[in-house]
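Agenda item 2: uridine-5'-diphosphate complex prediction
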Amino acid sequence: MATIKRILVTGGAGFLGSHMCERLVAEGHDVICLDNFFTSQKSNVVHLLGKPNFELVRHDVTLPIFLEVDEIYHLACPAAPGHYQFNPIKTIKTSILGSMNMLGMAKRCGAKILLASTSEIYGDPEVHPQPESYRGSVNPIGPRSCYDEGKRVAETLFMDYFRMNKVNIRIVRIFNTYGPRMHPYDGRVVSNFIRQALTNQDITIFGDGQQTRSFCYRDDLVEGIVRLMNCPDRFVGPCNIGNPGEFTIRELAELVIELTGTKAKLVERPLPVDDPTRRRPDITLAKKELDWQPTITLREGLIKTIDWFKSIDIGQYRPPTPNFS
Ligand code: NAD
Ligand code: UDP
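Presented output:
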C-alpha cells in the first residue's frame, strides 16, 4: 500500500487547488486545504468537507503558520490578470512573503515543496515555443509585473532554499489551464467567452484576436503536477506543463460559438498593456523526465467545461474584483 502523507495545498479552494485536493484525498492522503478565499469560495471543496482525511483552514499565506506536513503544493496566488492587478502590492506580497513562509515550513518539517509558477515568467517571449532554458522578456514596471516578477522571485527563493538549505523543491511552470470550477467572473479568456456565450452577451476579443495561447485541460495539468512532485529528486524543474496546441484568441472564440450554438456576437476591445503576443510550451523536458504529455484536445476540454458552466447557478458566485468583462 502507498504511504499516506500529510499534504498541504495552499490556494486549495481555487480552481486548480480544489482539483489537487480532490485527487490527493482520493489517494488516501491526509490533506490540509489552506485558502483566504480571495478568488474562490468554499463551494469548490464543500464535497470534501465530510471526509476524515480533509481539513479546511482559512488563512492568508503572507502570514506565518505552523503546521506539520510531509508535502506542500504551493498554489496560493491570484492567477487572472484582472484579479492580480486589483491590488498589485498584495499580489507581490503573496508571491514573495507567501513563498518564504511556506519554504520556512518546508525547511522546519523536512517537507517536499512544489511551487506553482507560470508561463508568465517568459513575459512577451522572443523565443517560440518556450523551453525552460529561455530566460524571458518581462517588463519589470508594467501592470503585469506584480505577478510576473513576483513569480520570478518565488522561483529564485525556491532555488536558493534548495541550494542553501537543501529543501527538497519542485517548480512547475503552468501554461494557460482551463476547466470546470474556473471562477465565472475571473475574467480569463475561457471563462469569459463561455459565460458570455451562454448568456448571449457580446464576446469580448481584446485587440484583433491574433495573439495566441495554448490551452491545457485541468486533468492533464493535475496529472503533470503530481508526476513532478513524485519524480526522483535528481529532477526539481523548472518544468513546463501545458498543452502545445496553439490557437489564436479569435479561433478560441469561434470554437466557443460553435460548441455553445450562441447567437452572441464578437466585439473587439482594447488590448491590455503588455499582453503577450504568443505563447506555447516546449514540453520536451516533461516528456523526458515525467513521461507526461497532454491527452485532451481543446474541443474535448471545452465541451466538458461548457457542460459545467451550464450546470452552475452563476448568481451564487461573488465577483472577486470588478475586473471582469
Ligand atoms: P485561482 O485564483 O482559482 O486559485 C488561487 C487560490 O489562491 C484561490 O483560492 C485564492 O483564494 C487563493 N489565494 C490567493 N491569495 C492568497 C493568499 N494570500 N493566501 C491564501 N490563499 C490565497 O487560480 P488557479 O488558476 O487555480 O491558480 C492556482 C495557481 O496556479 C496560482 O499560483 C497561479 O499563479 C498558478 N497558475 C495557474 C494558471 C492557470 O492557467 N490556471 C497558469 C499559470 C499559473
Ligand atoms: N482575452 C480576450 N478577451 C477576454 C479575456 C481575455 O481576448 O474577455 C485575451 C487576453 O487579452 C489574452 C488572452 O485572451 O490575450 C488570454 O487572456 P487570459 O486573461 O485568459 O490569460 P493570460 O494568458 O493573458 O494571462
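Discussion summary: Residues 6-177+217-241 form a domain with the Rossmann fold fold (CATH 3.40.50.720).
Owner for follow-up: CH.
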